[in-house]
Structures are given as structure tokens and as C-alpha cells.
Amino acid sequence: MLDQVTKVHDESRQGEAFAPGTTDSQTYSKKFYIESYGCAMNFNDSEIVASILNKEGFGATRNVEEASLILLNTCSIREKAEQTVRKRLTEFRRIKKSTPGLLIGVLGCMAERLKTKLLEEEKLVDMVVGPDAYRSLPSLIAEAETGQKSVNVLLSREETYGDISPVRLDNNGVTSFVSIMRGCNNMCTFCVVPFTRGRERSRDAHSIVREATELFENGYREVTLLGQNVDSYYWTSDDDSETVTFAQLLEKVALINPLLRVRFSTSHPKDITDEVLFTMAKYENICNYIHLPVQSGSNRILQLMNRTYTREWYMKKVERIREILPDCGLSTDVICGFCSETEEEHQETMDIMRFAAYDLAYMYFYSERPGTLAQRRYQDDIPEEVKKRRLAEVVELHRRQSEQNMKNDVGKTFKVLIEGTSKRSEEHLFGRNDQNKVIVFPRENFKKGEYVMVKVDSCTSGTLIGTAVQ
Fold it and tell me: What terms describe the molecular function in GO for this protein (predicted)?
């Protein structure tokens, strides 16, 4: 679909080999090695897979040489991720030749779309498992151990993995993700998610609150509620006696403890309600930060994308957010050079960027992804050099706006949740404020997981630098 300049994914974690974040005292007879690519949802899925495999006697390892099962949890959103996965599969196949019984599997979004190529044509893997089929991993592994190729890429209308407690893999012990829903109903024409992750379904609200509570009791101090479109979360109990909207879910999680920060991602502009905004305003521990993808500033292009809102409607939504939450941080996604986009329409996107003055933007130029509605309906007719030039203009505009937003915070004091040691200095700690901005400050006697008030003394283009105050 897209090639990125400013990364929506944490690029430092792409392809990361996972091991448990806490010491696991259990002894396992077999080891599995898993790499994850793509978005936070994929990394969260790897934690679900780890939980399922643990129950089958598999323990996680970061040493691929001692693994009897190698898994790649994949992403279909970006061409670069697919290329990387193919390269890794080729490398693992070489290891397999010298390791009798080693199984290789592909999980996630690439699985359904490329199952025939990976299994039959290129013969790179033994198993292909879609995002809704992780419960079947034990039987698929058993089938593959007999020499058969095993596949389950069926999409489900019910599966949410709500009863599975994820194994927290290799995180900072302070912040974690909690998946609240799976799939998507929006059918944006540039996106393959509805075809790889299926229809939208909301997870049992009680299981979400239970998981977030367990995280807090285990020392975590921030949870991010995850979904393709969290604002359309709507859970109904089996007997129809209880319904929970996203605003109500936010409140339930916020009430676990005032020391537990709550974030969420991602919002669709058409679905975020005043009820959500007023709930955010009511609870100090719900962070004032919203990711609100605009994609384009042109009404015609938005219609081609099937985004179901206009630029005018989007701008009123931004105004409403700032009316109810004056200090709310705002981020977005922007696609440059979508099919048939004119120069005037590109300027409309620049105009809406100026209007919203985003704190953070994930900016891409469009590249066609197989299986999307756009691939079937439209011609990818904007020359790549034009796409790249338009993207460069959007990036430069955002760079100036972001830099000014950072400067505006100098002199202010923020509550910061400490996430760890600064990458640049052992003598400094870092954390984020309510608006999701990174703040670095002297270590003193503070510890990871604590809250501290920090006055901002200066800034770079991407980091606030300050001093802890009483």
C-alpha cells in the first residue's frame, strides 16, 4: 500500500526476536523462535501465540539455532515488510537443511494472501496460519511434523482471543498493549486489512478490564487499547443484558487505578464521539492524545478512498476535540499521490495540515498493494517522482509545524511516566507526557515506572529536554 518516510511502526523493533519480558521459571522441552513485523497489533498477536505455545511445551528463545519451530509474524501493509520476510524465510530454509525436524511457519497478514506461493511455489515454509487461526497452532504443528504442509487461514466472525492471557514479550515492564477488537469494516480502498484480518468484532469488556488490571498489579503503569478502529468498539453480552461502548470501556479501564495511564489507537474520524472526548476530559489518567488519520485534504480523493467524511467534517471534528480537550495532542496519517490526485488536491492536503498543525504525522506516498479495492478499481497513475516530490513538501511542512509545537512547550511543566534510561546517556531517564511527547531529564534518584513532574527547559525537533521539579 504505502512507503513511509516518518515511521508509524517502531522500526527499531521490526523483525525483533521475542523472548519473555519476565523470567519464566518453567522448563520447556522444545523451543520456538518468533520474529514480528508491522504494527502494534502484530506484536500483540505474537504474545498470544507465545501463550498458546507455552501450554504445548514450547518455550521462547532468541537463539534461532536451538529452536525446533521458527515463526514469522508478518505484515501485508507495506511492500518493504514483505520483502524482508521473504529474505528471512530464504535464510531460515538454509538452516532447515542442516537441522532435521525444524519447522518454519508464517503467521499473520501475509499468510492468507500468499499461502500458495509460500507453500507450493517457493516451498519456503511448512505452515501458514492466519490471524484468526492461532488456536489451531498445536494441531497444525502436529500435522507439519508428519511431513504434511499445514494451513489455516480461515477468517472468523467471533475470534477475539479474549480468554487468552498474552505472554508479555520483551517490553519495558511499564507500558503495554491490550487488544480490544479485531478486524475492520471500513473498506478503505487503499487498505488490505479487512481482507487479511476479517470483519470487525469487539472483545468481551470484562476480559479487557481483567487483563489491564493484571498488568497494573504486575507493575505496568500504562496500557494502550488497540484496534483498527477503536471508536467503533461495541460489545454486547451473550444474553443481551449488557452493552459497552468505547467511551464506557475507556471509563472502566481508567477506574482500575488512577496510577494506570490509558491510551488508545487508532481512531477513525467518522466514529470518535463527544462521549469519548468528555470521558477523556473527566479522567486525568486518560491521556489527552488522539491519532486521527486524515489521509487526504481533498473531498474527491477522500471519496475515492472511501473514507466516508469530507474535509469540512474532519476540520469540525478537530475543532471539537480542541474545544473539549484544549491541550490534546493530535497525530495523523497522510497519503500523497493517491490515484488521479491533482496538484490542486495535493495543495488541499497541505492546507489541512496547516489547519490542524499536528504534533506527529505518519506520511507516505501511495504504492499499490495487491488485494485492495484500489488495485481493482483505479489506475495507479501518478508518476513516482511526483509522489516523492509531494511527499517531500508534506514532510517539510510537518517538520516546521512539529518543531514549533515543541518550542511552544518550553517553559511548561508536564507529568511524565518514566519508561527507562535515555538512549544517549545513562545519566538521563526518559518518559512521555500526556500528549505522547518524549521528555528526557536527569536521572537523580527516580526509577522506571514512577511519575515525575518535569519542567521543559529546551527541545530538539523530536524531544523535550527538562528538569524534574517538586
Answer: 4 iron, 4 sulfur cluster binding; metal ion binding; tRNA-2-methylthio-N(6)-dimethylallyladenosine(37) synthase activity
Whole-number Å distance between alpha carbons of 151 and 105? 10
More reliable by pLDDT, 382 or 148: 382
Query: Amino acid letter at 245?
Result: T
| Residue 184, marked binder | yes
Q: Which residues contact residue 389 at a Cβ distance below 8 angstroms, ignoring those fewer than 6 apart?
A: none
- Is residue 423 classed as helix, strand or coil in its secondary structure? coil
- Whether the Cβ atoms of residue 166 and residue 160 lie closer than 8 Å to each other: no
Nearest CA to 168 out of 227, 131, 230, 216 is that of: 216
User: In the block, which residue shows the cell 504434511?
Assistant: 148
Q: Is 188 annotated as a binding residue?
A: yes
H/E stretch holding 342: none
Residue 39 marked as a ligand binder: yes
**Does 328 count as an annotated binding residue?**
no
Q: Work out the burial of residue 280: count CB atoms within 10 Å of its CB; fewer than 13 is exposed, 13-18 middle, 19 or more buried.
A: buried
DSSP state, residue 169:
B
pLDDT in tens, 311-348: 999 999 999 999 999 999 999 999 999 999 999 999 99
Percentage helix, strand, coil for the chain under 3-state DSSP, each rounded to 5: 35, 25, 40
Grid cell listed for 59: 518455550
Per DSSP, the residues of 358-415 read: -SEEEEEEE---TTSHHHHH----S-HHHHHHHHHHHHHHHHHHHHHHHHHTTT-EEE
Tens digits of residue pLDDT in 27-37:
777 889 998 88
Q: Is 109 annotated as a binding residue?
A: yes
> Which candidate, 330, 354, 223, 224, places its Cα nearest to that of 272?
330
Give 390-411 pLDDT, tens digit per residue: 999 999 999 999 999 999 999 9
Task: Please give the C-alpha separations between residue 169 and each of 98, 344, 421, 423, in angstroms, as whole numbers.
Answer: 29, 47, 19, 20
Q: Compute the distance between CA of residue 441 and CA of residue 433 in angstroms, rounded to an integer.
A: 12
Q: Determine if residue 459 is labeled as part of a ligand binding site.
A: no
Query: What's 136's DSSP letter?
Result: G
